[in-house]
């Protein structure tokens, strides 16, 4: 089942349940996927769908940080609820231990020995974790492990 089909089914369910919060998030996700399809001119493959969802998740996480810093508790709860909904559609997320292992393997494979080779390591890591891990966490782990070298 494609992501759009799943979103349409979940939108119908949310409408019947009169779940306005979920409905709003689902409609935004559907619009993002459709906009990406229009821009591409054809249906998205699963990797492209995951990329759209990952972008939506990143936007929500960034908003969460901003709202927390601004003391907007009313918006924090709304964004947290949206994050939970988006997570349902993303692949299982890697935990920090798994990401550390992938980064360590990439450092060994690329032969990186200093922070100057950050880009080379990130280039090797990101295709393996795309959509499965938060980019900010990956970035921090790569920097940390390279500084230890």
UniProtKB/TrEMBL annotation:
GO terms for molecular function: carbon-nitrogen ligase activity, with glutamine as amido-N-donor. InterPro entries: Asn/Gln_tRNA_amidoTrase-B-like (IPR003789), GatB_Yqey_C_2 (IPR023168), YqeY/Aim41 (IPR019004), YqeY/Aim41_N (IPR042184). It holds the Pfam family YqeY. This is GatB/YqeY domain-containing protein. It comes from Vagococcus allomyrinae. The lineage of its organism: Bacteria, Bacillati, Bacillota, Bacilli, Lactobacillales.
